[in-house]
Amino acid sequence: MRVMRICVIHIFQLNLIKKITVMHSVKLKIDDKIYNNLLRLLSKFNKEELEIVIEDSNYLDQKQYLEAELKEIMEGNAAFHEMSEVEQRLEKIIKKHENNF
Asked: 19-24 — which CB contacts under 8 Å span 24+ positions?
């Protein structure tokens, strides 16, 4: 038996965020006899409709981080910066460390 999580992706619009991906997932135990047939069937969908995700520790860590970030945004606790401000900060950091290379 193999275990696979299937995630269906829906994209919707918000005022503050251009695109947020909402994923619905289903965890399946798949007999080896039909595993290749199922993968062939699932491969007919494009990546915007369905994505096969292998849940390793890196995936779970990233998922937890992104969920926390999204929660901050949705609750209005996230800090946003203008692009010019980010560029100025980056320029200061580069000037500070450019002689270290």
From this structure: 20/70, 23/51
